[in-house]
Amino acid sequence: MTGATMVHALNQALGDAMAADPAVHLLGEDIGTLGGVFRVTDGLAGRFGGDRVTDTPVAESGILGMAVGMAMYGLRPVVEMQFDAFAYPAFEQLASHVAKMRNRTRGALPMPITIRIPYGGGIGGVEHHSDSSEAYYAHTPGLLVVAPATVADAYGLLRAAIEADDPVVFLEPKVLYWAKGQWDPAAPVPPLGRAAVRRRGTSASLVTYGPMLPVCLAAADSARQSGWDLEVVELRSLVPFDDETVAESVRRTGRAVVVHEASGFAGFGAEVAARIGERCFHYLEAPVLRVTGFDVPYPPPLLEHHHRPGVERILAAVARLQWESEWREPAR
Amino acid sequence: MTGHPLLPTDAPVSLLDTAETAIDGELAVELYRRMVLARRFNRQATALTLQGRLSVYPSSAGQEAVAAAVTLALAEEDWLFPTYRDTAAVVLRGVDPVQAVTLLRGDWHHGWDPGAHRVAPLATPLATQTAHAVGLAHAAALAGDDLAVLALIGDGGTSEGDFHEAVNLAAVFRSPVVFLVQNNGYAISVPLSRQSAAPSLAHKGIGYGVPGVLVDGNDALAVHRVVDEALTRARRGGGPSLIEARTYRIDPHTNADDATRYRADEEVAEARRRDPLPRLERHLRERGLLDDATVRAASVAAEALAAVLRDRLADEPRPDPADLFTHVYATTPPHVAEQRRVLTGEAGR
What we know:
The complex is a heterodimer.
Chain A: E1 2-5, H1 6-20, E2 24-28, H2 44-48, E3 53-55, H3 60-72, E4 76-80, H4 91-98, H5 101-104, E5 114-119, H6 134-138, E6 144-146, H7 151-163, E7 168-173, E8 180-183, E9 196-199, E10 204-208, H8 213-223, E11 230-234, E12 237-239, H9 243-253, E13 256-263, H10 268-280, E14 289-293, H11 304-307, H12 311-319
Parallel strand pairs in A: 2-3, 2-4, 4-5, 5-7, 6-7, 10-11, 10-13, 13-14
Antiparallel strand pairs in A: 1-8, 6-12, 9-11
Chain B: H1 25-50, H2 64-73, E1 79-81, H3 87-92, H4 97-100, H5 102-105, H6 114-117, H7 128-142, E2 149-154, H8 161-173, E3 177-183, E4 186-187, E5 190-191, H9 204-208, E6 212-216, H10 220-235, E7 241-246, H11 265-273, H12 276-286, H13 292-315, H14 323-326, H15 334-345
Parallel strand pairs in B: 1-2, 2-3, 3-7, 6-7
Antiparallel strand pairs in B: 4-5
Helix pairs in contact in B: 1-2, 1-12, 1-13, 2-10, 7-8
């Protein structure tokens, strides 16, 4: 086992993937000499050379377009988008080519491209540095969307994303970059599309991913005081979606709250809530609720804590799960 | 505006109707033969849209000198990145004509194996293919493979950000790419004056540190010469080039377009007088490089191509609805697999 921060785990995953497969090439802005603005690629240019860890001009669409051409020639590009909102110029390449090329060419041109995007807020970033853009990607057929929340998964899921023959949008929760944990480089590369139950509970299921996992775990700890024993399910992968694990949990607890940092309206939580409703209707004691960021542009640093869901807002939602329908007396 | 080595000449490079004597007769006849094929293909495909057998066809009639020159200059190991208007060039590159029109027929989005022919899919979103061309060229250069990549683009496409990013990336990485702009005067209805205020589109090259070449796009010999030079330079590690080929789109944008709404009949009539095909034929006959037998043979080959397209389009099977799901992912996610089961179970399919 190796222990350090999520940034270190991602760095080792990239290095190990490059050592394992000469087709893996990194492209991005400031990823070479500087090692990336978050240092995720630190030392890799020195170790593998500028031909495999390439600083590019500031041109996100062009970078991803280049990755398409490199994949056509048999390479396995890993693109770093410097920040969530800086990935938007590349959206046309992503939606029109990365996501569609395999289908368009009946499998002749697979796109084994990993697009790493540091995403979400909570780090005091000024405007355009804190967006949660997962819904755009999850809505686009042909893409896989992966969002680790633990240090171990940052290593394992990034290895899995790079090995996948499908394009993967890999969303790295910035607020957890400096979280500490352990990972096992010798462990088998995990499959994509498996959720994990991070905390066992019986009263209700919190379903979440990415930067909201620690907040949900804290909420579950707090909830004990109110007599609720909350289960926490972490998706890990938005596409593929693990209906089985989510539905199994909600059928057991009978209640669910979906928690994400992104705005709620037409957000990924709506998909999660709908899928739970479709599969667990007869097991539900209350409607599935969502706790999300507000439907406003991401706030400036001094206001962001009002926007990001916290323990209080999650517990308020749990309190609204129609406990009065329970046979037992509600907790006072 | 001339004087800097990266700037184009004031007048487009031209060989036909000039005093140029060093003309390779065999090459010129091959260009003619290819142009006859491309013209017949354009005519046949347009006819098929009128019969409802193709959904749409963006004709390149009037631009066949470029298709002929480019496909003749490309080596087998080179790659071609075409736009949606370049089906004729794709066919000249050797792609099966029925596979080449798959997108336009509507039975699938694309029909040929790109790796087998080294021809990328027709790019519909403007200029996006230019970045792909740079990436493939970059990968080939990293692998030490001596090949060049030719990216076609239209005058309208040069207004897109991806064109700028791609030329800049190619220049920075010295990628073996030739960007060839077919300036046919219009982006659907909007004339070049609303796309660019540059002295020429080839002048844009100097802004990236890339040599710009302006060529008479209705002169197959001249286009071949400048493309051949640019490809050779690229293969030898000399970096990218930007070529503007001045031509004219004789047909409407597609069969669904009404070009009379934005350009005068006299303008089109004038363009027809500069039609690259009769122009080359006249030139070659005057020089004794083309005889009736060769003209007849080219025509017979073109009719055979048209017949193949007509006949085989009628034979093609209808697409299988289950194919909607087959190639979306290498590993199909469960929610997509579930939808495939729904479709397969529907009675109406």
